[in-house]
Amino acid sequence: MLLSKIFWLTLLARPLQTSTASLLRSVSADSPDAGREQVRLSTGWRFWRSENIPDGIIYERRSDASNESLLELKPWILPMGNAFINDPEDWHDQPDSNLDIDIEYTRSGFDDSGWENVTIPHDWAIRLPFLTGSRPVIPTSMGNLPVHGVGWYRKQLDLSAEDARKKIYLDVDGAMAYPMVWVNGQLAGGWPFGYNSFRVDITPHIKTGESNILAIRAENPAGRFSRWYPGAGLYRNVWLTKVSPVHVAHWGTFISSREVSDASAVVDLSVTVENRAESNAEVLVLTEVFEFNTQSQNIGRSVAKFEPAKLEISATDGKASFNGSVTIRGPHLWGPPPAHQPNLYAAVTRVYQGKRLVDEYETKFGIRSLEFHPDNGLLVNGQKVYLQGVNQHHDLGPLGAAFNMRAARRQLEMLRDLGANAIRMSHNPPAPELLELTDEMGFLVINEIFDSWEESKTPLDYSLIFQDWREPDLRAFIRRDRNHPSVIVWSYGNEVKEQSSDDERAAEIAIYLRNICHAEDPTRPTSTSMHFSSPNMTLPTTQDVISLNYQGEGMRYGPAYEHITGGNHKTPQYQAYHDAFPGKLIMGSEVASSLSTRGAFLFPVTPYNSAPVNDSYGGNSKTREISAYELYTADAGSSADRIFLTQDEKPFVSGGFVWTGWDYLGEPYKYSSLHTGGWGIIDLAGFKKERFWLYQSRWRPDLKLAHIIPHWNWPGREGEVTPVHVFSAADEAELFLNGQSQGRLKKGTEEYRFRWDDVKYEPGELYVQTYKGGSEWAADKVQTTLEAYSLHLSADRGHVASDGDDLVFVTMEVVDAEGKVVPKSNNTAIFSVSGPGEIVATTNGNPGDFTAFTSLERRAFNGLALAIVRSYAGASGELKVRATSEGLQGTEISIEV
Ligand code: GAL
User: Fold this and answer.
1) Residues enclosing ligand 1, CB less than 6 A?
2) Could you give the residue range(s) of every CATH 2.60.40.10 domain in the chain?
């Protein structure tokens, strides 16, 4: 014991001042001259963008910007990575010469009054019109929005005289891309990879007691640098962190749990404290563990204390670490609902110099055990959890890449309702807040960092900087995210090209990256997703767990796919992998890649349970729609039905991650003039595609659900075969058309839907009654509607917080005189709002609609459109959202601010 028990109690009896609201991470210690303060820098920014390079600088000359006159700043940026490079031999020296450049945008005297006022997070491209012309700089594969160019952000920072005693850091959660930070005209740092978070020490550049100019430059290449919509600019939060010179280091805690049971668990903690002061420091580090209430975001009961630790830390940049363990009796374990609850704890670390509290640092964590079993799959706290996963890209549809907590939560809430319990962050690090949400809501996460290594997938992608940044990027990524209980696997790659070009090289790189992961975090397995490698190749031998994209079901495989030539053909591979690696868990890191356009049904319907989309079956190249019978796929994909069959046949597989949960911007398939590909179970607006109920019936088998497709408005199809399919967990179903039975069906062992493929259309009513185990289960009906008559509005919530961030999602439906949504209606609506707020975006989920997301005039798409509403910061009162449309009755809805 380093301290008497009485002293220990006195110290911890002080009230905790930890405010844990996720978007205001402000922790203040009770010592007047010290303490940690973290302020989000969201308002007061000025922004300007140029399509070309306006300032004569670049991180490194590339093929799209090879102009010799550009000054390369790489030598000044590379040393930022040193803190995340293990071997000092590999550190980058600061250039001897000072950076001899004067950029007017970085100077305090520069007149930015003509620049745009923006709040951060900000995505400069999402509010602009889509690019037109036959060969736009940014193609539809990247979302067709003007992400290219250089964006400058300026903000005044006022620092008090007291701040002179502190270290001042700028924490950037992510900026697209090649961000560089200037303070008062001097370059302070940067970090090229647009998806990683980074910290810049701005202390040497600031003037305390006066105002400072912070200028951040972001740049995206003019050309293909991504396979999807990347976003542009300061699209994640930016923070100012002030700490006493002696403080817990950046991402300086690591907490994990072992020997976990309901009775007890051992929690291991490591804390690194940094001394940036002029003299050596002797500190006392105390860490106490509290229950954490995710509803109130407050700390609860204290449950354990680590042994106090004394550390001696040498002056100017010394670091010292403490490692300790405690046993927690009767822990509230973390795990995914419904079988588990996502309980969290908070470890509060206090650093004392003498009697002075100099830092207080909170780390949220969860106690859980994970077992990756080759035959039983994933066990969480000893119980099997089948991975019902989805892949998610980082964009938030019409809000672009600009992170928004409410929009992200809405995505997860709908995925939870779907029955999903796992998310793969494809293919790059997410916003830090997204992992706070997955912790709180109990999603299992594959956290992924790279889509390419040395070999490029698009000419200007990460491969350009892989060699210099792979180590610092990977270490920074893991240090940031390793305390999240939701993260279960680190993925350091996705379908890398090296798989097919050079298997040995792929394995070498994999081992290199894997070893870094293991060194940073020995508690989690790692992986890279493989769609090409075979069990007899070298790359798979390097894997902790086997992550297969599409190989499990086979690629371009099955009766409907036989005509496809070329490409990566595969027969089903789960068994072959299981045989070759009997000790390794297997998962489908990408499954399905099926496609559909919400509300679009095309005829004829394939007789198979899975078919590649083409103009004969499932597709229409004129309207660019893909049929919502939910049987159609990319050439290498499989329908949900076929995935379910494979999963039932291979129970040793731990589950799969559907490509994708939500539609995302970019990567159209089959038809090129689309701004989204239609891979999602949920469309870009957040409207459910029919697949939603197909997955729900599988993933939530206790839900009394029956869902009929298609809609029943088919004027002109009278007497023609119009198949009717029903999604339900029931085992029998009887369909009636206008009261006439179309037959009672029993679901076969290899069937995941009920199909009446010979129904002849007549207007009226379809009704299905389903049965399970002989008893009535659920029913559904679909009726032919009358003509469009009026608009109807509904909101996801009746109130909105006036914090400047919160959003309300308002759905508009085109309905008939009886209130039924008219399926194919595409009336144009005009949205307006009165009261203290604004409409920030509209959309309808139609992949082929290139109306700017800011437009208040929006066509319904197959009956629906969406308006996203935000209140003004600090406002209160009532917001009225209105929708009108020529020839239809308009409507309005009230939202309380
Ligand atoms: C995979 C790839 C994903 C996406 C998907 C579309 O091969 O990993 O990023 O492109 O195909 O089917």
Assistant:
1) 426, 494-495, 531, 549, 590, 593, 634, 659, 667
2) 2-30+245-365, 708-783, 790-896
Beta-strand pair 387-392/422-425: parallel
Tens of pLDDT, residue by residue over 128-178, are 999 988 899 999 999 999 999 999 999 999 999 999 999 999 999 999 999
**Kind and range of the H or E run holding 182:** strand 180-183
pLDDT of residue 66: 85
Test site for ligand 1: of 140, 392, 495, 643, most ligand atoms within 8 A of the Cβ? 495
Compute the distance from residue 394 Cα to the ligand 1 centre, in Å.
Answer: 14
Number of CB atoms found within 10 A of residue 373's CB: 14
pLDDT digits (tens, 9 = 90+) for 83-92: 999 999 999 9
| Cis peptide leading into residue 374 (ω within 30°) | no
Q: Top-level CATH class of 2-30+245-365?
A: mainly beta
**495 tagged catalytic:** yes
The CA 379 to ligand 1 mean position distance, Å, reads 28
Question: Which CATH code for domain 372-700?
Answer: 3.20.20.80
With residues binned 3-state (H G I as helix, E B as strand, rest as coil), the percentages for the chain, rounded to 5, are: 15, 35, 50
> Residue of the nearest CA to atom 11 in ligand 1?
593
Catalytic residue among 495, 520, 625, 667: 495
CATH 3.20.20.80 range(s) for the chain read 372-700
Cα 485 to Cα 443: distance, rounded to the nearest angstrom: 9
Q: Which of the listed residues 596, 632, 659 should we mutate to test ligand 1's pocket, taking the one with most ligand atoms within 8 A of CB?
A: 659
For the chain, give every residue range classified as CATH 2.60.120.260.
37-242
Structural domain 37-242, CATH architecture = Sandwich (2.60)
Q: Residue 10: which pLDDT band, with cuts at 50, 70 and 90?
A: very low
> Model-level pTM?
0.95
**Is 362 a known active-site residue?**
no
Considering the domain 790-896 in this protein, what is its CATH number? 2.60.40.10
What is the fold, at CATH topology level, of the domain defined by 708-783? Immunoglobulin-like (2.60.40)
Residues 750-774 as b or e (16 or more Cβ within 10 Å = b): eebbbbbeebebbeeebbbbbbbee
Average pLDDT over residues 250-278: 98
410 CA to centre of ligand 1 in angstroms: 24
Which ligand 1 atom minimizes the distance to the CA of 531?
Answer: 7
Question: 880 C-alpha vs ligand 1 centroid, how far in Å?
Answer: 41
Quickly state the pLDDT bin for 687 (edges 50, 70, 90). Answer: very high
How many CA within 13 A on the CB side of residue 558? 26
The confidence band for 3, taking pLDDT boundaries of 50, 70 and 90, is very low
Q: Which atom of ligand 1 is least distant from the CA of 427?
A: 9
